[in-house]
Amino acid sequence: EARLVDVADVEVAAAGVGEGSRDQFGGTEGGANLGRLNLDLVERDERTRSSFQTLAEVRKLARGVPGVVVEVDKPADDPGAEDPVVIEISGDDFETLGRIAARIRAEIEDIPGLVGLDDDFDAQRPEIIVSVDRVEAARLGLTTADIARTLRTAVNGTEASTYRTADDDHDIVVRLAAPARDSLEALRRLTVVSEDGEQVPLEAVAQIERGAALVSIRHKDRTRVVTVSAKVTEARLAAPVREEAMRRANAIDDLLPRGYTLSLGGQSEDEAESTAFLSRAFVIAIVLVLGLMVGKFDSLAIPAIIITSVSMSMVGVLLGLLITDMPFGIVMTGVGIISLAGIVVNNAIVLLDYAEQLRERGLPRREVVMLTGARRFRPVMLTAITTILGLIPLTTGLEVDFRTLSVNVGSETSQYWRSMGVAVIFGLAFATFLTLILVPVLYDLLLAIRERFGGRGSASSSSDSDADEDEASARTDTAVAARVIEEDGALPASG
Fold first, then answer.
1. pTM for the whole thing?
2. CB of 436 closer than 8 Å to CB of 373
3. What is the rounded average pLDDT of the residues 77-106?
């Protein structure tokens, strides 16, 4: 706490030690050997630098404290979120797992962007083992509960009563003085009182000796597991740092004995599950939309054109992520892609549905394409522009303080939504271009194929060979086109 007094932008520093130390979500974490220091920063618009820079400075200042392991991190967006880098080592012997974890930690600790490297292998800690002779204890009128209660009172203390001062209650805890409980010999001299009131020396019914034992052993799929975990300085570094860590771990000679395996866990495992779920959701959404369009247009070709524009819009998403230098977030970018598909489908349907209506009125092929683009340019552009403008505040973190009439850009909470916003904004901008250019071109090709093979929707019969009939058909098409243009108030007819 003394090292962090002069850190910039820190408003409040609250330290807690022991059983009552509070975690970042307001709960408590037990453990007499655990301490926590919570740093509250000033309001974002009052900070002199990014909170990530403050976090990096705190990491540097917290180094080098002998005898302790210091972990520095920001509050997680999700209380159940896993570390971005998690390597799981599975095998039978726990000691061997610990040695493998130590070798991996030594190999990957200098990866750029990797911080907070640790593992959950708990080495054997010293302890005092009290082995009770149950037969002798029963003969002297004692139970294991009596012996345990005496030891607890002597070493840890027992709450005997409470007393009140003003509005506060204070516990009265009784235990032996430090000189009477700081050695094995002192514990052996303890006496245990039986139910009959007789005092029995502890060493007469129990053997006290030094020992060591593991604190905990983790299992996964009924196999012992030790996990090497770490954090990253920036979210976009999670994937490359994870890949480099696994590459270095796999390159260690004679690292894994027979029967031991390495695997990625944590966020990598969560991302794999999210990818599978979002992939299924995207396929189901496309199938449902495709089925609806086939029923509406009574055709497979027109829905195929619309789905082509949806798939091509993914190019815009990737370009947006490259331009903004953002990682491909599995969850939020995936949600953005699914949302984008719905918007792009709507724009393409608006365009092609109107084109089909004009085609049913008997307009020539080129007149249909040109008139459709002119008449549906405004609604398609309005849909794209309003959607993009609506997502800009969410993506950029734009905030307006009406009390001070000030505008702030770059809210840190917007980083969670930014990848989704970037995917929709750039994908929709690119898809709008496709809707106004690619979709009419593909539709024109479709009409040309229909006319050539005598399919549905040809403007005039291609099988007529008589010149008079062709001239009459052309005059009819021109008259129909002029009538439609006059009714709709569109551009004047060409030709």
1. 0.57
2. yes
3. 81
